[in-house]
Structures are given as C-alpha cells and as structure tokens.
What we know:
Its cofactor is Zn(2+). By secondary structure, the protein is α+β, with helices and mostly antiparallel strands. 26% of the residues lie in helices and 25% in strands.
Amino acid sequence: MAIVQQKAQCVLWFAEFESVVTVQHNFRWQYPRQRIPEQRAICCFHETGPVQKNQSPGRPRTSEEKVELLRLSCVRSPKNLELGIPKTTMQNVLHKRLRLYAYKIQLRHEIKSENRPNACNQSIPGMLNVHLIPHSHDDVGYRKTVDQYYYGVVTKNTPKGGVQYIIDTVTQELAKDPKKRFVQVETEFLWKWWQEENDEMRQLYRQLVDAGQIEIIGGGVVMNDEADTHYQTTIDQFSLGFRYSASPLLDEMLGECGRPRIGWQIDPFGHSKETASIMAQMGFDALFFARLDYEDKQNRIESKTMEMVWQANKNLGLSSDLFTSVLYNHYSFPTGFCNDISCSDDPFIDDKNSPDYNVDEKVTKFLDFIDDVAAAYSTDNILITMGQDFTYQSAHMNYKNMDKLIKYVNLLQKNNSNINVFYSTPSCYVKAIHDANQTWTTKSDDFFPYGNDPHSYWTGYFTSRPTNKRYERIGNNFLQVCKQLSVLSRVSDKSLLKKLSYLGNAMAILQHHDAITGTDTQDVADDYMRMLSVGIDKCEDIPTTAYNKMLSQESSETKTNLTMRSCLLLNISQCDISESSSEFLVTIYNPLARPTSHYVRLPVNGNNYVVTDYNGAQVPSQMIPVPQSVLDIPYRKSVATQELVFRAADIPPLGLQSYKVSLSENNSQGGSVTSNNHTISNGDVTVELDADLGTVKLISMNGIDLPLTQSIMYYNAFHGNDAEAANISSGAYIFRPTSEGVQKINDKVNVTVYKGNLIEEIHQVFNEWVSQVIRVYKQEKHIEFDWMVGPIPVDDGTGKEVISRFTTKLDSKGIFYTDANGREMQKRQRNYRPTWTWNISEPVAGNYYPTTTRILIKDEAKGLQFAILNDRSQGGSSLQDGEIELMVHRRVLKIQHYNEALNETAYGAGVIARGRHIVMVGNSSAQERLLVQRTLLAPWVFLTPGSGNPVQVKGLTNSLPENVHLLTLEPWEKGSILIRVEHIMENGEDPVMSQNITVDLKEILAPLAVKSFYETTIDGKMALQSMERLEWRTADNSRPHIHHNINNFSISLSPMQIRTFIVAVNHIAPSPTTAPSSGCSNIIRDNCLVLISLYISLKFNFAV
C-alpha cells in the first residue's frame, strides 16, 4: 500500500508528464522495494484533477494588488508580511483567481524532506567515502570554435568529437541506472542541445535533473575567466546562464532542480575574490577549482588545508564567504582510469581465464591513489573527478568501467577494507563534508598569480590579444546602452529583443576562460570577434527605435524617424558619416545614472565646423591633427587628417543629448597651433617634458607637483624547447622574459606639441612602431596617455613583450594595489605571498597581477597615491618602489601545444594595438572610482547624416548619489525589468562616500512608473528571501552580516554592496522564483501552507 507521501509523489509526476507509464517508471526508481501502483491507482491518486484549474470565465472582482499580495505570500514568509485581507477575500483569491485545489497543495506539502527521493547515493559512516564525479570539461571555444566543438567538426588542431554526442549518450546511459550521476556545467552547449531535441528527450533529461542524476553546476553560459573579466560581465554571463538552465529547461512551477548551487571553476588560470563573492551572492554553497600555484598546492596538501572558507570580500562579511575545495588531481581521471574513446588506458578485464586479467592490478593502483588523496584532506569523504576535456562521447564505455571499479573496490569491504566508492555529485560531496561539522581554515587573499612550476607563471594572458580585450570592453559598453534604452523606451518588439539577446549571448561567450584571455587559436579568436561584431551590428537598431520612441513620449507632436549609427573605427580616426557629410547630428547617450560630460572626437575632412546644442547655442570646438602614426596605418581607409573636438556638457542621467555639426566657411572656432613650449596644461593639470629627451619629467595635479618619467619599453620573450621547467617559453599563457631585463626603445623621442582652446596634446614618436599622445582636456583633472604599439618587429627571431612604465619618487615600500575584476582593491607586496614562503625564480613574471581597471601605489608618509586607470584588462606590477608598469602588447614566436604561436597578424603584418592609460595623483579613491565608471560605461556617440534639430531627452528625472551606481537596467521576464544598484566605495576609502546610504527606487525610476518590486539574488533568478546557504564553522566569528533593509521603495546600501530587484512597471506583476526544495518537486514553498490550511478550513470546515 502506497503511503501518502508516495501518493503525493505520483500526483506530482502525473501532473508533470501526463503519462502513467512514466509515473510507474519513476516509482520503480525511487521506491524499488514497493509494489508499483497500477494505472487505476495512479488515476485515483489524481482524481481531484490538476493543482491548477483551467481559467474561469468572468470578470474578476478582487483587485490585482490583493491577488499579487497573496501570490507573493506564497514565496515570502508570512511572518514578514501583514496581509490585512479578509478571510472571504482570501478564499476567493486562492480558489478562483489563483485557481488552486487545496487538497492537492496540502498533499504536496505532506511530502516531508525525509520522505522525498534522496538524490545522493549513501555514504557509510566510519568508512572512507569516495565520491566519483563523472564530468566532461567542454570549452566553449579554444582550439575549435563554439559550433565546431558542439557539432564535432574535425580541424587541423583537434580530432572529431562533439558535445552534442556527450549529452546524448550520457542521458541515455543515466536513464538505465538511477545510481549513475553526471554534472553539466556550460549552459551554452546545453541550450544548443535542448533547442534541437524532441520532447521525449527533453522530458527524459528533465527527469534526470529532477532525480538528481544530472546536476547542473557552475551554470553560467561559460566557465568564465577570473583575471581579465569585469564583474559586470561576469554577473551578466551567470545571469544569462541561469535563465537558460532554470527557465526554459525546467518549468518553474515544478521547482528549480536546474538551479546551480555549486561553483565549478576547474580550468581558469587563477582565481579571484570577486568571482567567489559573486558566487556566494548567487546562493552557492561551495566552489571547486583545480589550478593554484604549485607551491601553494604542495603546502596545502602537507597541511591538509585543501579545503577552506574563502572570505571573498572584506566589506561584505558573511554574505561573500564561500566554502572552497581544491581538486587533488587537476580535474582529470586518475592515471590509468580514463576509459573513454579519447583515451588509451586499459579497460577492466575481469575474466579470470583471460591472460590479460587485470582487476587486482587496477584495484591496487586505484587504492594507492586513494591513499594519497585521503592524506591531503581532513574528513572521511574525498572527491575524485572522473572526466577530462570532451569525454563521454560514448558514455557507455566510461560507465561500464566505472561500474566495475565500484564493484571490485567495494567487494574488498568483505575483507575489512574501509573504502566505499560510489557515484556522486559535487552537491552530495559538499553535504557530506558539511555534516562533518568541523572547523575550517579561512583565506582572505586571492589565488593570483598562478604558477605551475618555477618558471611558468601564467601572467602573459593578462595582456594577450590586447585588441580583442578592448573590443570586448566596447561590446559591454554598448550592451548596457542597448539594455537601458530597451527599458526606457518600452521596447516590446520581439525581433529587437532577440537582437539584444544575441549581443548578450556573444558577450557571455567572450567571458570564457579561453576567449577574453587570448589563449585560443587565431581561427577561434576571429570567430569570437565575428560573434561580437554581428551582435553589435544587430543591436544598432535598438538605439534608433528607442530614440524615436522616447522623443514621441516627450511630446505627442514630435514624430521622428532618424537613423543613428555608431562609428566603431574611431580608434584609427575613421568614420564615414563625419567625413563625408557637410552636416550631421551627433547624439550622445549617457549610460550612467548621474549627469556626465564627455569630449567628442570625430575625424572630418573640412577645416571649419560649427557645433550647435539643443538650445540653439554654439558650442566651443577645436580642430586637432590626427597623429602621424595613425595616418600611416596601412589599412586605414580615410583621408581625414584632423579631428573635430567638442565637449558635450551635462548629459542627463540615462539621457540622450544631440548636437548639430555643420561645415562652415568661417574660421570661427578654435584651431590647434604647434608650440615650442614642452609643457601642456589646462590650469588644473600640467605635464612638463624634458626638452632634450622628449619624455615626461614632471606632472602637476590637485596642487601636487610629482616628478615622473614615463616610457614605453619591452622585454625579450624567452624561447626554449619546453621539454622541462627551465626551458619553458613565453606564450599565450605564460610571461617569461629573458634574464637581460627590460629594453629601451629609444633614448630620445620626437615631439610635437599642439595647443588650443579645449585640449592640449603632446605627440610623441619613439620609433616606427611605437608612438604616444599625452593630452589634457579643459575642465578635467587627469592626464591621458594614448599609446599605439605595433607591428612589433620579430625579424630578429625574438618575441617581445611591450610595457608602459611610470616612475616616481614615491616611497611605496614594496606595496601596490590592483583591482579585483573592477571592484575591491587588492593589496600586493613585491616578492611575497600571504599564505606561504615564495621561492623566487621569476622575479618579473611572478610579480605580475591582473589589472582590470586600476593599479596604484601609495606613499603613506606623504598621504599621496599615484593611480593608473586602463581601458582593458592588462598585466601590471610595481617592480621597484615608486614605479608602476603595465604590459600593453605582446608578440611571441614559440609554437606551443595547439600548434600556434601568439603571433597575431593583420593585413600581412603584426597587429597594431592602440589604447589609453589615465593618470591621477592625489589622495581621493572616490574620484578614481568615479572616473573608472565614466571610462567603463562611457557615453556612446551616435551619428545621423543630414540636417536635424538637436534635442535633449531625459531618461531619469533624478540622479543617483555619486557613490551609488546603476549597474544593470534591462528587460526581464514577463514584461518586468531587472535592476542592480551598487555602492561603489569600500569601507574607509572616503570619509563621506564610504558611508551607508539610502535611495528611493521609485523616485529614481519615476519615468518607469514602478508599481512593485522584490529583491533577488545577484543573478536575478531567485527571490532573496528564499536563498538558503550552508553555514560553515570557522575560528573567525567576527564576520558581520550585511543587511538588506527595505522601507517601502527605499533601500539601503553599504559599501561594496550590490542589490538586485525585479521591478513591475505599468501593472506588470513580477513573479518571484523560489529556491529549489530538497526534493525539487513542490510547486509552492512551505511558507504558503498557512494560507492553504486556512483555505481548507474555510472550504471544508475542518482543521488542518
């Protein structure tokens, strides 16, 4: 006789699959010792019908607000919500509006956690429990493109093999045996597969996820890099991946077994605190990774500290803490146990009559390996990865041999062996070690740089493929512009939103640890850039549509049909519209939630132009020569020799502001004159050159005179045979300079100085492949160093790694700071590691760290700091006190494991890279952070040929405070919108701006007519109140909890806090998503049981 819990489970299955056969099949899996219910019994269990009724006709009498309030109470705790709704109204809403059958809800809630199917194969107390984790590491591009990897295309670099076959065969194999497990990581491939499969295969996959046989971990579109990525793009790629894995794949009304709870960063080349912090804020219980410095790993093995609680952000307290486990054997099969079609290890031969019988030998080898692993960890549970790159294309081979491994190892328990081996998942392993309830060590720094031997420091990829890194940064800038304009203009056209999704997906793919890093092959790198280019081109239609709609919303009499286009080749001073039009409109969009000003620079063919603003007033402008080095670029298709420069002042928050530019006969605007004076200044900022050398010798800023020298130099790349550590070469991953040190390009620099009414510039030419422009703008308090490097010469057979070095007399005492993915500043100390004694073998490369947006040094005695802001991710260091260097470009010649060298070419020559460093001097971290925001989310310039009237359109009527940033504003699901707001300061960085602050979302977002909202985890896919994480014991009990205060529409923000909300506008109700239950099968959280019980008592007149 089936008990009530089993009956309820049958109801759940029948409601989901509408198939008696499937219910019986599931029942056999979950309750193997119970008699399988007959068809008549299953239908009897289900006789009251589905939980949700069909829509009843008739006009509703209860307000939408009350319905929404009751519905929200089913995902929020009633303890925190005073409903104030009469019982009769509640009955009406539950029965007629929400269409819930009370009996079925009650039945579902009677399935207690102890009665739900146990997704974990059971460990045995008192034994060493060995958790086998079947997995495949599937790079979303590396030596083959994304599509080539998915479909299994044979290329010059890789054999045949496709991810589609992996998912196919794993699904089929797991369906045969409920004990088998597999973990799926990258949702880009899963989503491709899902779109192609039939309903039967989808249903089977969903069933395996619900049963815990397939666990989705990581869950991002890709397994993101952690050094070169910005935190905004990291959050976005996880958010998009979660929408793939939780929404389309699994019906949310049946639970969210597809929601990841574990981080799985097994291949990135070093690990950042910010990535761990983001994972913690998504509700993850743990993180697993493989790569850490070889000395650090050995130290942790010896001290049994391979597992720890990572205190990932000192400002966010416990909310950013994440249990972290380092994998013992990289992420590979144990040696000798790769029974995959891609491997050559012997299978289990268990016929004792065979001369090749090898069971005893293989079991002994496995047990020896287990002994080594167990010695490195502190509980009686260990995790063994059973996978490698693109394995399980014929999953039966893998599982058949793992079945034998489990069988023969566990048979030894009869001989008093204490080893228990079984299929498992990372979540089951985490639960097992959490149940050990031990006290864990902590870590508060990061895992950079990564060295895998004394001469292999993976710090070259911080800079590799610098032009791609810059293009990715531009792509994110434009993606945020398109997201915001889609919301502000209420874009609902599905074709436009599809174009927005394409760019979002392209940007997500670029966060892959072989994409943004530049560690891919040239063909794959080109394909990444193709995807980004197509995405940007598709999204160009959104700003045009938004602009015309927003103008129409401003005034019903204003009807426009303007077409706006971006000029993406301004880095080489090329733009068809500005060069070919005698009259055109320049429209600038400000993606920041506060007013900003921006200098517009456009290549033109005329000599005199008039710029007019939206008030009809003439705007000061200046003509400035295009640097000769830019004019000499062979593939530049432009005859423009000058740029028109003007200042777009006070662009409103999330607003559009346009200007009319007209060719003029009169020389009424400012030109640029050459000067023999080797000093440029705007009154607040001054740069002084050494008149003999042509290099910088002094800068003045904020009333501070700072002696400074700056030069562009290079390291010769070490070229070895890679046969042993001492002969490891510089390559796409590894930076290894020769022992001769840094090389000067030229002692003297050719200089031309230009001065005008808006801007003063120094044009420097170091040699035929290195040049630079140093500039100061009026009303700005920083200096720009606009560098251009390439083609790097390699005719001498030696690769080169080019740096820009800034040298001051500040006493930095060996300390410098780099940012963690654009967020928290990290203290670095030259020749030092916080958690072990570093044996220095590579003093240059081993002191390089990832620099996403900012690097700085301090002179504590003088109260000064010297900061450099960069426009893309780069490697940076301070190798001497008072000094900062950033690597800007690299070209190395050693052909390495994927049969290519990092020897980028374009148009028959080495790639030319152009970029910008912004220099600031003073003691204001706040001003640096504000300028970082202006650089990362720069105003976007659109051009429209022909005549037109300039306008100003305000996106927001109120600005956010300076220390609050609108990180995300994007269209979300079911017509709602997602917003993220963040406090940009750290504790103690600024006496004013580092304070807690409260903002009113309804007031700030007034133009959007906000009706209601609820808070979610940082990814936007789970109501924050539903998030439950495992708590871990540490010796440090001082970590605070960060509060999430809400008072009506007012929210509080503490330093470094990011808060995410789903917002309903114009009567569109947001739909909170609850956390996955322990069985992933109940449709409504237990919080709703109070309401349901009340309903039952009213309806049937009996107490529940």
